[in-house]
Specification:
Elements lengths: L2 H25 L6 H24 L4 H18 L6 H18 L1 H24 L1 H4 L5 H12 L4 H29 L6 H23 L3 H34 L6 H32 L7 H20 L7
Length: 321
């Protein structure tokens, strides 16, 4: 076969591969549909075979040089790392992250169960055994909030003077707990469980103290606006820690190091995706929480944020699953 006949017989495949490779370079390979990606892979295999033929029969020719560049570009598009672009990050946040949460719903759900159960337990302890419940309240809030209300102090005075301290203290604590919950996975989940339990007990105990004093509305108006995003971030961080713990506790047929390496990618992505929730919650805590707004409106705002987060987790990315 001469070179001209060789080119004419394969030009359509090469042109199609060049077009798909260009689209993958511009928008990322994930932007290609399943059929396009399959076609690109098949065209890549044929073109790679053509390159081998050209290297044997037409060495040093323009055809060989063209095919060599085309195969290299297509290989990078199919097998190379995803480009570090704003578009790729947006694609991950818009569709990839909700899919990732849904794919790992078991450890995230267990994290939510532990945290929520601890909240309920802390709330009940206030009514059953306050001296025990108070040890779960941070020292900076124990005397000024918990004990003052238990001793019949003015709810209005406590809310006015310690509202900013309460929200700031809980926010700082929640960020620390999120980091501990994730890193605690490396202790076979022991510190992850501790972080979720301790923070849940604290929140439940504070809620119980305010509820006993008739201040449930004031308390939740301080917590819900930013907590609607901040508390799910803690649960996600706890879920990521449990993903690491599962790889260590039950590695299956893999060595623990290999199982941990396999699980760490998704675990890190889960906790990184929770960071924007903490940032947005911090902005809400700084501007809305201390504002002189009707407590009912603050709670309604938090409910809307919680609904928006739920829809974000449930709906995006299903068509590409």
């Amino acid at each position: 076969m001469d070179e001209r006949t060789f080119i004419d017989g394969s030009r359509e495949t090469w042109d199609r591969l060049a077009e798909l490779t260009g689209a993958a370079q511009r928008r990322g390979v994930v932007s290609l549909g399943a059929e396009q990606l399959r076609a690109m892979y098949e065209d890549y295999r044929r073109t790679a075979a053509d390159l081998a033929y050209a290297q044997t029969h037409f060495p040093g020719s323009a055809t060989e040089a063209h095919l060599n560049g085309l195969v290299g570009s297509a290989h990078a598009g199919l097998y190379g790392e995803s480009p570090r672009r704003i578009g790729a990050a947006w694609e991950f946040l818009a569709r990839g992250y909700p899919r990732l949460i849904r794919a790992n719903w078991r450890p995230i759900g267990l994290s939510a169960l532990v945290f929520g159960g601890a909240c309920v337990l802390g709330f009940l302890l206030v009514y059953v055994n306050y001296p025990l419940a108070r040890i779960f309240i941070p020292e900076m809030l124990r005397d000024g909030v918990g004990d003052t209300l238990k001793q019949g102090g003015s709810l209005a005075d406590v809310s006015a003077s310690l509202g900013p301290l309460l929200t700031a203290g809980i926010t700082a604590n929640n960020i620390q707990v999120s980091l501990l919950a994730f890193a605690g996975g490396m202790t076979f989940g022991a510190l992850t469980g501790y972080a979720l339990l301790q923070n849940g007990l604290m929140l439940g105990a504070l809620a119980g103290v305010f509820t006993q004093a008739g201040g449930a509305l004031q308390f939740w108006s301080l917590i819900v606006p930013h907590g609607a995003l901040e508390l799910p971030a803690i649960v996600l961080a706890g879920g990521s820690g449990l993903m690491l713990a599962r790889a260590l506790v039950a590695p299956g047929d893999l060595p623990r190091s290999a199982a941990l390496k396999s699980a760490s990618g998704d675990a890190v992505r889960v906790v990184l995706g929770a960071i924007p929730l903490l940032v947005i919650a911090g902005a809400i805590e700084g501007f809305l929480t201390p504002a002189p707004v009707d407590p009912v409106l603050k709670i309604a705002f938090g409910a809307v944020m919680a609904l928006a987060l739920t829809l974000y987790v449930v709906l995006p990315g299903r068509s590409q699953a």
